[in-house]
Amino acid sequence: MDTETVINAHYVNHLANVNNKKKVVATENIYNQFGALLVPKGTAIEHRVHDFLVGHKMKKQLDEFITVDGCLTANSLVAEFNKLLALFPDLQQIHQCIDFGQMLEHLCSVQQIPRILLQKLTILKLQLPTIFEQTLFSTWLGCMLAKEMKLSPQHIRNTFYVGLLHDLGLLHIDPELISKQGSYSDQEWHSVKHHMMISVAIAKLIYPFDEEVYRGIKEHHERCDGTGYPKELRNEQLSYSGQLIGLADIICHIRTRQYQQSGKSMANIMPYIQINQHSFKYESYQAMYTLVQRAELEISDLLNRKDFLALPKRLILQRVRITQLHLAFADFVALFPKETKGKHSKALIESCEHIGDTIKRAGLNSPETLDWLESISDSDFNDARQELQELDSMHYELLWQFKKVFRIIPDFLQEELPAKAKLAPQLNAHAETMQQNLLQAWTDYQ
Ligand SMILES: [Fe+2]
């Protein structure tokens, strides 16, 4: 465990901003590691004291020496979970259907949540409210999935802590990066990718949690098919808690942002689950499927009669684009030199197979599907609209799969393709064309 911690500038800024709304005060003298007084007891942590604190090393973390007015408690944390669920009737329905309220209260209260964790969550709530909402969502869903999978009470508790802790590291990186729209530079991406390790360091200073908690935090952006980060680990190398919180994070993003804009609910999540089943532990997908099925949610019907006939036409075009993308991807991996045996090439080859399997299994490129799409007329509105919307969602998820997998290509080309490989120029050109084709396919969904 680290014995010293450096006071982080972004975190002190967050504290000073919070102090504008709720008092943040030093409860005792704050000294650096050499015993020099930085800030006396009773001082408000405002922007004025920023320079006295930042960059100094301490034996404990800053949070141990401060209090925040109106800090979350176990009871108010339960209230925050309930407030979130009240915003989304479909989540509420799932929650009530499996009677999760009691377990959630139990998790929040039976073993005291460390004061510093509650304090950090309070800062997160006030300074990065979207990340706080995501933290609650992922903790709630991750624990429900763990319960559904019949994991032991200790595993469920560890998943609860992985959920609460996993993104606290974001409080220690530049907030502009967190809200940035568009792609990151290499250096920015490096900082963002580092947040799991900061969260682990914070967790270690808060409480001696089980090893599984630190491991879950580290792994929450890893994916079972090797397409995650930072280590591109694979299924057998990954723990349950990190994968449950990782899956819950993605579902949170889909439900609270993507679906919120389009009016969809958790009932529409099935195409995502079907297409992405290789990315997370298989049991967690089964659990997700069961949760949604059991709640008997009604699928939102978003298609009106006026737009109905445009959909099969768009699906026919998308179908061609997806098939071509997959063929180009298959040609690309077929060109890999025999001596290429790294983790990037392995992930690319397997992902190409998975995408091919999914397309085949769902009949997306079958002649029957094409005949059906071409035969749809206005009179099919009642019978066909739900199936068409599901097909549309599957196309959308497949394009996400391509997007996610293609992110690995630059690393493969740089790190695993021998510089003198004869096929290097061909592979580079091929990769460029695939990226352009993917962009083109996305235009329909903008
Ligand atoms: Fe994260």
Automatic annotation (TrEMBL):
Q: Which Gene3D superfamilies match?
A: Hypothetical protein af1432
The UniProt record lists the HD-GYP domain at 109-305
Q: What is this protein called?
A: HD-GYP domain-containing protein
What organism is listed for this UniProt entry?
A: Thalassotalea insulae
